[in-house]
Amino acid sequence: MKAIQLKAFGGPEQMYIGSYEKPVPGPNEILVKVAATALNRADTLQRMGKYPPPKGESEIMGLEMAGTVAACGPQVTRWRAGDQVCGLLGGGGYAEYATIPEGMALPWPQGFDAVQAAAVPEVFLTAFQALRWLARLQEGERVLVHAGASGVGTAAIQLARAMKAEVLATASAGKHDLCHTLGADVAIDYKTEDFAERVAAHTDGQGVDVIVDFIGGPYFQGNLKALALEGRLVMLAFLGGVKPGELNLVPILRKRLQIIGSTLRARDLDYKTRLSQDLMRFAWPLFEKGVIQPVVDRVYDWSQVADAHRYMESNQSRGKIVLKVE
Predict the structure, then answer these.
(1) Which terminus of the chain is more solvent-facing, meaning fewer CB atoms within 10 Å of its CB: N or C?
(2) Residue 110 sits in which domain range?
């Protein structure tokens, strides 16, 4: 088969399409002919040698895919050849074929094509895990989503809204329209505004119950300030760095805050399977009714993967960047 590989760790120019050994499904796995995959920040980090795949996972980039079942392992009972599936991968999505455990494979939501289906797994599973499994977001609570126009941000805004929470989001001014369209009640320009002050003004000083953060160090003190009594901060990445600068930890005790860190890629199979099935039960009816939707910014042929990575790294994207695998 063909797959996107690396000449060496480094810039986008290091990627190329070449021959690679076709994976063989295990007893409880299915082999999928990949039609589309999507970019994630983890891919750019892996390309640079900063985020190696977990032990046992494919060294090919790509954390999600959509395609057609080509073959099934001998113990597979849920799927058969020809079924259209999408799902989260530990790696291997940038290829013509990928394997996935049968319990982690999900049907395409009714009416979706391969591009839409490929844009669902990673961002919606990450956002759903943060909001429902980790933060235990409740109806009527307030949530602040940082990087609201990112892939995970667009998913988190919609899911939080579907959970009947009040949603605030940070994004550059040019992306506020998207955040509002997806359901954000308040959009904050992180370039010109202090998000903690905006939160305080909007909530009459009470703060938000949940924050979903990908930025890390530079936002940590502001997050503590913006959280309400017994608020929960879910940290998913450190795109802004790991050093918070001057730090006052008093709010953690005074407001009885919870700080939760999580990565999804390294979770065990049982966890990811249960999460995938729980997301499907919650979100698939909403996808099929048009209540929520994946936000796709651009679609590239996989031969243009270097351009796709450059676009992601320019921070201009609004939602997902998808590769068609042809």
Answers:
(1) C
(2) 2-120+266-324
